[in-house]
Write a structure and sequence with these properties.
With 207 residues, the protein is mainly α. The chain has 2 domains: 38 residues, no CATH class; 164 residues, no CATH class. The protein is built from 9 helices and 3 strands. The termini are far apart.
C-alpha cells in the first residue's frame, strides 16, 4: 500500500519516489540543505564557504608565489628576473592537485559520471599523470612537453569540474553547485593562460 510517497511491504516502510521529490530537486532550499549536510551541518554555511574558497586561493598562491618571490628578489638586487620560477609554480600546482587523487580519492570518483568505467583506477591514473606533468616543469628539457600536456589536461579534465558542480559533489567548492563555476572557470582559464605565456609562447626564455 502506498501512502504519501511511501510503500508499505510486509510491515516494512520503504521510500518511494513521488512528485514532491522532483519538485525538491528544483528548489534552491533543497540544494542548500544538501550543501549544509555535506559541509557537516555543525558550522555556519558562511564559515564553510570560506573554507571552500580556500582551495582556489591556495592554488593561485602556489602557482604565482615562486614567480612573484623571484621578481621581488630581482628588484632588490637590481637584476633581471628569471622566467623559470613561473614554470616551477606550475610544477608545484600540478603536484598539489595530484595529491587530491590519492588523499581524496572517493570524492574525486564522485566527480565522474557513474557510466564511466573503472572510475577509481582512472582517478589514480590521472593523479600519476599530473605528477609526471608537474615534475616535467622543473627541467628545461621537458618543460615544453609538460606545458602542452598541462594544457591538454586543463581542457580535457574541465568537464569533470562542470559535472561535479552540477551534482553538488562535496569536493572543494563543487559543493556550492553551478555557482562555483563562476570561480572555477576563470581560475582554469588563468592557469591555462599562465601555461601559454610562460611556457608555450617562448619556451627558450624558461631557462
Amino acid at each position: 500500500m502506498r501512502i504519501h510517497g511511501e510503500l508499505l511491504v510486509l510491515g516494512q516502510q520503504r521510500r518511494f519516489p513521488s512528485h514532491g521529490d522532483a519538485l525538491d530537486a528544483l528548489n534552491p532550499a533543497f540544494h542548500r540543505n544538501r550543501l549544509e549536510r555535506a559541509c557537516g551541518g555543525g558550522h555556519s554555511l558562511v564559515t564553510k564557504g570560506i573554507a571552500i574558497m580556500f582551495t582556489p586561493i591556495l592554488m593561485l598562491v602556489i602557482l604565482t608565489a615562486p614567480h612573484l618571490a623571484n621578481h621581488a628578489l630581482a628588484a632588490l638586487q637590481k637584476q633581471p628576473a628569471a622566467h623559470a620560477p613561473a614554470a616551477w609554480g606550475l610544477g608545484l600546482l600540478f603536484l598539489f592537485t595530484a595529491s587530491g587523487h590519492f588523499f581524496q580519492t572517493q570524492q574525486m570518483v564522485e566527480m565522474l559520471p557513474s557510466w564511466v568505467p573503472a572510475r577509481e583506477a582512472l582517478v589514480y591514473a590521472t593523479g600519476l599523470l599530473e605528477i609526471v606533468i608537474g615534475a616535467g616543469f622543473f627541467s628545461t628539457r621537458t618543460r615544453a612537453a609538460a606545458g602542452w600536456a598541462a594544457a591538454a589536461v586543463l581542457v580535457g579534465f574541465f568537464p569533470a569540474n562542470v559535472y561535479a558542480a552540477i551534482q553538488h559533489v562535496p569536493m572543494g567548492g563543487h559543493a556550492w553547485g553551478p555557482a562555483y563555476l563562476l570561480i572555477r572557470t576563470p581560475l582554469q582559464l588563468f592557469i591555462l593562460g599562465w601555461v601559454y605565456y610562460f611556457v608555450l609562447r617562448a619556451p627558450s626564455r624558461m631557462r
